[in-house]
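Second opinion, please. Please look over this fold, written as tokens:

===
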Amino acid sequence: MDLEIVTIGTELLLGHTIDTNAAYLARALAAVGVRVARRTSVPDTPEAIRGAVADALARTGFVVTSGGLGPTRDDRTRQAVADLYGVPLLVDAAYLDRLQARWRRLGRPGEMPEANRTQALYPAGATVLPNPRGSAPGLWLEGPPGVVVMLPGVPHELQGLTDDELVPRLAARSPEARVTRSLTIRTTGIPESRLADLVGPLEDTLAPATLAYLPTFDGVDLRLTTWVLPPGEASAALARARDRLLAAVGEWCYGEEGVDLAAVVLDRVRAAGGHLAVAESCTGGLVAARLTAVPGASAVFVGGIVAYENAVKVAELDVPEPTIRSEGAVSEAVVRAMAAGAQRRFGAEAVIAVTGVAGPEGGTAEKPVGTVWLCAAWRDTQRAVRIGVPGNRAEVRGRAAQAALDLMRRALSEPPDVRLARPGTHGNAPT
């Protein structure tokens, strides 16, 4: 089955809002064998909506729209589609009652505004798709022009209706559908070009899966995709290709799909029976923020210190002042002392420490902008590395935080007898 997506909203064309709805729809539809033939964005005008939907119906006969179902004057999708089908808008009395009950349940003052009543309107002949996450229901309209499914533009509402209503209905229409499926392997610490050297010779053996390299802020994702296969064949092909890729990328892989490296680190510290703290300078708390963004982090993460000023490094982390004067704040000796100080302060078995030159100023010939020292400590052993991080200030800080987490992951991946035993290294390491 082919269909088209029309996302509605002037804010999308102005660039004020990123169109995440179309991406979510495309992924969900591919999983049930539906191919998105075209995606179109149009402003909040009746003419633009009607024209885009009519053109899409003429090509595929099936359209999913996003947006324009709210209570304000720029929400015009219902009327535009009703006009296209030549049907009136009717009031769904039962849905109107639910809207009024929802208004009261949320404790809002006074009577529900008249504008909200428009959300109980539907084109004659349409099926109302309940939306427990918001006030605008979805609408499914079939007629001579084809099928139009209208979904709200609020992302979590669209996602809920897609999962609860749209996908099951489409799957029921095509029980023998061939599906398009993807699987993502996440890597970090290795440049795309070097990764291609490792993986390139395998690409022909991955068929029928295809491979795409997706550089991200955190590393390079490898996305495997199978196209238009029966579900069982698709799953088996992805599994075979996945195993081959994992064997090739080895230590550079830290997980699959949307896994966060911070969650991987927390899991490994927990499995090792430890607790984790951080001591940060140039990253300014980014490592701690990554860790505490993971649900359940409190079972492992105990706290951290942002020792931005040298005086704080001395007072809070017991970094010797003579060491800072002789070696500089961005040095192996200082990052090791920061890690040891945090271990004592927090009583944590595991510590991540970071110090560096984030820029745009402050670099020298010996320590240019992007120079970062990292240390991963586990009990009475440490590993410290120096890396060179490209990019502007925000990129240096973000990539340094990712590299620091990866250093801890690697340290905890090794057998206990060699864990963290390697001496510090110098030079530029990939990020």
Observations:
- The chain has a mean pLDDT of 92.
- The domain at 179-256 is CATH 3.30.70.2860 (Alpha-Beta Plaits).
